[in-house]
Amino acid sequence: MKGNILTPAGWIFGEIHAGPDGRIARIEGVPASPEHNDAPYVLPGFVDLLNHGGGGKDFMDGEAAVPVILRAHVRFGTTSLLGSTMTSPHDVLLPALQALNRACAQRPPGAARMLGVHLEGPYINPGKLGAQPDTSATATPEELEQYLGAAPLKVVTLAPELPGHLDIIRLLVARGVRVQLGHTLGTYEDAVAALDAGASGFTHLFNAMTPLQHRAPGMVAAALAHAEFAELIPDLLHVHPGAIRAALRAIPRLYAVTDATAAAGMPDGVYHLGSQTVYKVHGSVRLADGTLAGSVLTMDQALRNFVSIGLDLADASRRVSLYPAQYLGMSDRGMLAQGCWADAVVLDRALLVRTVYVEGECCVENA
Fold first, then answer.
1. Binding site annotation covers 250?
2. Is this model's pTM higher than 0.90 or not?
3. Residue 36's pLDDT is what?
4. Of 61, 259, 300, 343, which residue is the catalytic one?
5. Residue 208 is assigned to a ligand binding site
6. Pairing verdict, β 113-120 and 153-158
7. Is 292 annotated as a binding residue?
């Protein structure tokens, strides 16, 4: 891993040495500006906290689908991710979580690391389903305990305005789970109450939530006014660049997610998102009625899109690596420093992926 290395202290020109344990043993080099040479960029591996699938497979498909998805996304620089579920009946969701739990136990060779699960539904508002199936539910402590026991839930998306959900937020936070507000018709006041209860994020900001209006500020205004962290899909289809710029000015650690579907990394065609049939065409994924249904975004493209709207490379890198890792409370991923996992992406000068390392293993090597 040689080149212009982005460290927490800034750019250096040098080399990363990984130890046999898959962690960074040392970084050798000298401070340097990438503009003054033509060497490749070495960035922290990308961390994706909302990902439904890729390579033709969905995380709801079962344990055998997981290695396919992890290998599909590592090709684009994602070195760790959360497997995201879809709104489903209890008798479908529980076994799906149990399968994901088994898949989390060990990283397949040549693949990204699955860090845990993002439960996106069923605890959402039926009036803001987006592409989620119409099987939403109000959370109960008893059902949630089953899910918490079935898989390592790291993030849960819910609609805070549903009855009892403020208490559910407190329960989840006490168990170390990050709670995000999304797929919601809640008001600004609902959002503030949820943040006071311990919620800490917003799921795909701007999408599937009440918009900002000057007399009804909604969820979006609550995020812009109060959030330290929020996720956003920067495929430039889900959110206009101008709205992204506004969020960047307001939310200190705004970060990218892909919301990728089975169609990510695949040709145009018919795929599935949980139980929904979706269609990939011209760079988007939609339901039959034209509703956006997740994306085909990959994290390397998210990085390039951030750069294309004016972010410098170091700032863009933080929003695909460091900030999502920090949101999960991880201090050993999302940055290149001694003792961290040796997760790194080597990009050429056009910001195209050349080499990807996961925990010291070279998983991708492009000519």
1. no
2. yes
3. 87
4. 259
5. yes
6. parallel
7. yes
